[in-house]
Specification:
Helix content: 55-70%
Strand order of the largest sheet: 2-1-3-4
CATH topology of the largest domain: Glutathione S-transferase Yfyf (Class Pi), Chain A, domain 2
Low-confidence stretches: none
Structural class: alpha+beta
CATH architecture of the largest domain: Up-down Bundle
Bound molecules: glutathione
Number of domains: 2
Radius of gyration: 17 Å
Order of helices and strands: EHEHEEHHHHHHH
Strand content: 5-15%
Mean pLDDT: 94
Number of helices: 9
Largest sheet: 4 strands, mixed
Length: about 200
């Protein structure tokens, strides 16, 4: 497998999931600033014509895109996690959480980071993100991980996007249980190793 990634972006959640699931992959850095990235002549166009990461190449010609889909693919190949997610309702709960992180946190934070909102939109968006974090903070007071007692790919995705809050003027310390969750994931051996590898 190959992961097309850009440092500091959502592809880090996929890198973490691969590491925790002990799945081997090669890592191909993509320069998101490259203005030719979406040009049909650019090699990355075959990988993702939409010009963004992450993309997981599952073999030479099969490219899986969109963080929630890629994380489900990994979850199914992660023995412990696959086992946990086997129940039908558990599976829907995993989709639910991945969709929430993707659409209610990842995307709006991404738009804020890229300054793609006017001031009114920015204020509303920050307040909506804070509301999501209030709810996730409450969940974090009740369970060890976002989907219950076992680590899942959703935790790794949430951890990744929580790491961006500071860049949009939100202080994670405001949400005590989420801060503790972040610190717990951050301490994991795989996470530390993945961070070093990403920076190399
Ligand atoms: N819908 C995609 C969005 C991925 C995404 O936002 N990727 C960002 C990095 S976090 C990116 O590559 N942005 C560059 C761009 O969109 O031009 C997903 O969920 O995987």
């Amino acid at each position: 497998m190959k992961l097309y990634f850009a440092p500091g972006t959502s592809s880090f959640a996929v890198r973490l999931a691969l590491a925790e699931a002990r799945l081997e992959a090669d890592f191909i850095a993509v320069n998101l600033e490259d203005e030719w990235l979406r040009d049909p002549q650019h090699p990355f166009y075959q990988v993702n014509p939409l010009g963004y990461v992450p993309v997981l190449a599952t073999d030479e010609s099969s490219f899986l895109r969109e963080v929630p889909a890629i994380l489900c693919f990994i979850a199914d190949r992660w023995p412990g996690e696959g086992e946990r997610a086997r129940g039908e309702m558990d599976r829907y709960k995993l989709y639910e959480m991945l969709a929430l992180i993707n659409s209610e946190l990842h995307k709006p934070i991404g738009l804020l980071l890229r300054q793609m909102m006017n001031e009114g939109g920015r204020v509303k968006s920050v307040s909506r993100i804070a509301r999501m974090l209030d709810w996730l903070n409450l969940k974090a007071t009740q369970d060890e991980f976002v989907l219950g007692p076992a680590l899942s790919v959703a935790d790794l995705y949430l951890y990744t996007v929580l790491g961006w809050l500071t860049y949009v003027g939100l202080d994670l310390a405001r949400w005590k249980a989420l801060s503790a969750f972040f610190a717990k994931i951050d301490k994991r051996e795989c996470v530390q190793a993945a961070r070093l590898a990403e920076a190399a």
